[in-house]
Design a protein that fits this description.
372 residues, alpha/beta, 3-stranded parallel sheet, binds iron/sulfur cluster
Length: 372
Amino acid sequence: MSAERERLMGLVRDADLRTVAEKVLAGEPVSEADARNMLVTNRVLELGAIADFMRRRINGDNACYGVNMNLNYTNVCELRCPLCAYSKDAGDEGAFTLTLDEIEGRVRRGVEAGIDEVHIVGGLNPALGLDYFTGMLRLIKRIKPDMHIVAFTAVEYDYFARISGLTLEEVFRALMEAGLGALPGGGAEIFAEGVRGVIAPKKISGERWLEVMRTAHSLGLKTNATMLYNHLETADDIVDHFSRIRDLQNKTGGFKTFVPLAFHGENTGIAAKRKDSTGFDDIRIYATARVFLHNVPHLKALWMYLGEKMAQVLLAFGADDIGATYHHEKVVHAAGARTSNYGSEEHLRRLITDAGFVPVRTTASYETINKK
Ligand code: SF4
């Protein structure tokens, strides 16, 4: 028995988890039944040993973070999903749409603060045409030509195609020419139709989300894949979500990161129907994702959604990316996130080193930035 194998098998006593550990050691994908077992186990330290083994095999001791800003360009949205605390109808109190001049001011302030990247998402606002978006990306590139732009959910791309009469591919090409660097992977929520029909009935289907990603990957764009949990989903819904992402990744290889997003229910239409996840739920979902999605290289534990302390703990349960600084984040804070909406770089580095990992400043495409 190799030392590596002896060490891992010595830590895992539960029979179902030993089956998982054997597959991981052999480099075999685990099954959906294995994922279900991982998602309900109470033996989180044993599960964590397997996830950490896999995490170190893929990413060593590195833990990534970014220095970026969020740009939420409008909260006017024609879908008004029940899960959303952020959107408004045009004319509502608090409804806003940033002009390109306002965007310029924000990005210039971000550049003065030393950002490497802008992360852009917003609502589906019928007042905006594709020109607004190409103009926005060009403007950002003029301010800082090497800015990495991570922009728009699959829901927005589907909308852009509809309003412009272009194909998805043509929309991507226009935005790539204007400076698009990668996709943040939002809008996936949970693919399972039953729950999706309750939390976001007017949103594109899970199949369409996967089609948008397939198209982006075919053009060489790298993307995240997200999953919204902590609402009405079951373990089976989570396994289904993982499985569809793993299948597409086997075909395209375009997902660079998986990002489970812990739902915040305050001010949403489904607040009363759900119960909050426990700490063990968070750990099980992250660790299971790390093990099941063996073909997606990174796992992001966004401190802003999870809280800094849980995000730090998850570095020992498979995560290798803690998220970024996010000046001006609005979406999750509208739904009651209690975290600060600006994590300093020093603080993110401290969370990582304090957990025994090596902090690496990167963009969302994992290009290393050597400023520290
Ligand atoms: S979740 Fe997105 S698509 Fe749905 S209402 Fe909110 S901004 Fe619009």
